[in-house]
Amino acid sequence: MNEKVLKFTSQMKKRSGVLFSELKKIESELGFNFPKEYADFLLESNGAEGAIGQAYLVLWSLEKIKPLNQKNEVERHAPHLIIFGSDGGDMAFAFDKHLISLPIVEIAFIDIGLEEPKMLSQTFSEFLEYMYTKWQDLP
Predict the structure, then answer these.
(1) What is the structure's pLDDT at 123?
(2) Cβ proximity of 97 and 74 under 8 Å
(3) pLDDT computed for residue 137 by the predictor
(4) Domain boundaries, the chain
(5) Contact residues for 110 (Cβ-Cβ < 8 A; gap 6+)
(6) Residue 139 — very low, low, confident or very high, per pLDDT cuts 50/70/90?
(7) What is the pLDDT of residues 42-97, one digit of tens each?
(8) Can you point out the beta strands (E) in 23-116?
(9) Which helix (H) or strand (E) holds 126?
């Protein structure tokens, strides 16, 4: 796991990593390869939850990504998205498959398929940095 990812997730509760074979199995089932930086994170920590700066972040475990995308009918309403986490409330974070770079976007669960997601970052570490600094200027 790279140093930026370690820094920004230091306050979060992490899990044991997944096996490479498990990662490849889920990617095959999804028909989608996770960006390398995120895949490396999963190999070290199969999801995480907790404070990231002044924000809160839930990064779903690998085995929850497919069923939670199905539960939220992502394939039906926004097939270009793969949701991988949330703010613990109504906001979802997803990879946007529209672009080869697989940027990370934010969208309210209730708006999936109705609204365009908001672009947050181009990489997983940039996303974590965004979350880490999101509420930094508030008193």
Answers:
(1) 95
(2) no
(3) 60
(4) 3-133
(5) 90
(6) low
(7) 999 999 999 999 999 999 999 999 999 999 999 999 999 999 999 999 999 999 99
(8) 48-52, 55-59, 81-86, 91-96, 104-108
(9) helix 124-133
The CA dihedral of 49, 51, 55, 57, to the nearest 10 degrees, is -10
Alpha carbon of 100 to those of 1, 22, 33, 123, 137: distances in Å?
A: 22, 24, 11, 12, 33
* CA distances in angstroms from 137 to 8, 33, 84, 118, listed in the order given: 17, 35, 27, 21
In the numeric block, which tokens belong to residue 57?
């972040």
Query: Which tokens is 41 given?
Result: 């994170």
Which CATH number is 3-133 given?
Answer: 3.40.1580.10
What are 2-41's pLDDT values in tens digits? 888 888 999 999 999 999 999 999 999 998 999 999 999 9
